[in-house]
Amino acid sequence: TRWQQKQIAQSVLQARSTNDDGLSIPAEDQLYFPQPKSVEGEKQGHDLFDYPRETTDQAGESLTLSPLSVTDKAVILALCLNIRNTNPLHGLVNHHVQIYLERLVVDPAPQPFIMMSILLLLRSRAEKGRSRVAQRSFLQMQELLDQFTTRRDPTQATFYRSDSRYFYLVNFPSVWSLRQEFAECCFEDNLFKTALELYENIHDFDNVIKCCKQLDKRRRAENLARDLLETDPGNPMLWVAVGESTREDKYLWKAWELSGQKMAAPMRSLAKLALEREQFDKVVEYFEMATKINPIFGGDWFSLGYASMKLKNLDRGTLAFTRVCQIDPNDGYAWNNLGSLLLQQGKTRPAFNAISQALRNNRRSWRMWQNYFSIATELLEITEATHALAIIIEIGAKDVRLDGEVLMKFTHAAIRYLKGEIQSTGNDEEASKTAAAAQQTSTLREGVENFENAAIPHFVTASTNVDGEAIVDDDDVELAVDLQPFGADVEMPETYFPEKEARKKAEAEVLQKAILTRYQDRVKAVFRQITDTFVNNADLYDCVATLLRYTDGPVEAFKYREKEHRI
């Protein structure tokens, strides 16, 4: 980038043409040869460079780019297409393609129009999933599509893009394919109205109906579906569109019959209608049939789990939300609901782990943090509970509803932790190191004791004759019986370095004391923040007085007891 301060290793493509053919474009091809517009490139001021800035190679010489012939560029573009077609859709694959495209973008040789167009199109596809250049990807594809809508020169029989001799050297898509691809991008970005116009231009009526559903144009979707049914009355998806537009079950059941009970869409639509009518038993029935046909659709499992929660079917709901988390591990709401169901079943530790995963994907929901705080308090994960309580007040402020019983339980747990009656959680790095050192010392002692009591076997070595039979000498057997382990008569000390162990123990005590002091200041600061936010909560003042009686004495606790009795 323009603001990069340190050098980072980058993958670059070094390519050179073996001949000079095609380095220059004939004059007749340059007559109508404007270059396609590159959107938000390095020349337009984008902070990302079109090509990584290189310093020197291993020999100490500066790396320069040699111009490539048109044929070689076409070969590299074909390699890019081959990489995308022979590998799964993944970020590393796009990065691999990006290396080839960056080399062609900055090539010093002139680019034919059609070749530069396919180059920008491939770059737009590769950058679609990157948040930093997602806008450039979208605008670049729109710019390439607009080239087909410009009016051609009346003196020319065709567009200049097809006049070039290099037109068939690359695989540039047709205008219809490009419009469909751009419409899909618009639909993914929730630009349903733009996608609707594009789908209407290419007569993709299935996606037109889908856009109408998103725009809540049910009447239009119904009319279009009925018009299409006149020519194709056996299409189940058209009957599904009619049923969803009219909110009538009979059309959906007809689609289910026409599909031979092998299509999940009718059952999914019936389940959604039953969910709107709050018929949760039918929702579970319909979604179970839909998931048997198509078990990888996460939305069906989520709705099935929600309906199961309403019916108090905890096992079915747990299974449903588990499948949602397996399909989409980044669904924070599914993790949160799974944790709630596990907590109702008495599985506190799995519920705590599920809520932790939910917070990894949604850290701005104070309700999730409140669930996390309650479960952490129940499990005596005291430092985690303190951290969660601070975030609850920071995010939720006065919208939070504090449970006095849970808060008092947390206060007693915090006092027990300060007294040393309960162990700290994994959030304290120093405590973990201390525990590891103690474990290492204990292991060393056990190793010494096991070595003293260990029975060390000794085996007699034997040679073999020509036939492979063992030859054992009787003298060797007697000698082997008399062998004793080396150092077996030496008494091992209880500890190797008693002074060092005592010093480590003293250091661990100092560290533990510092941890408790720091935690005491932290929990007092959290309660001070809560009391500044909630000034009329008697249960809160009760908790603060209980804590301060242990930390600061009865005088400080008495102040909050007075506030408690005033409310």
Structure description:
The protein has 567 residues and is mainly alpha-helical. It has 25 helices and two strands. Strands 1-2 form a two-stranded antiparallel sheet. The chain starts with 26 loop residues before the first helix and ends with a helix. Mean pLDDT is 80; it is low at 56-62 and 426-481.
Keywords for this structure?
mainly alpha; 567 residues; 25 helices; single chain; extended
Describe the secondary structure blueprint for this structure.
Blueprint: H1 27-30, H2 70-85, H3 91-105, H4 113-126, H5 134-146, H6 175-188, H7 192-201, H8 205-214, H9 218-229, H10 236-246, H11 249-258, H12 264-276, H13 280-293, H14 298-310, H15 314-327, H16 332-344, H17 348-361, H18 366-378, H19 382-396, H20 404-419, H21 429-453, E1 463-464, E2 470-471, H22 474-482, H23 498-533, H24 538-551, H25 554-566
Antiparallel strand pairs: 1-2
Q: What is the SS-derived class? A: mainly alpha
Largest sheet entry: 2 strands, antiparallel
DSSP E strands, number: 2
Question: Helicity level, as a percent range?
Answer: 55-70%
Q: Strand percentage, roughly?
A: under 5%
Span between termini: 59 Å
The topology string of helices and strands comes to: HHHHHHHHHHHHHHHHHHHHHEEHHHH
Q: What spatial form do the alpha-carbon principal axes imply? A: extended
* Rg from Cα: 36 Å
Number of H- or I-type helical stretches: 25
Going across the biggest sheet, name each strand in turn: 1-2
- Identify low-pLDDT runs: 56-62, 426-481
> In terms of quaternary structure, what is this?
single chain
- Tell me, rounded to a whole number, the average pLDDT: 80
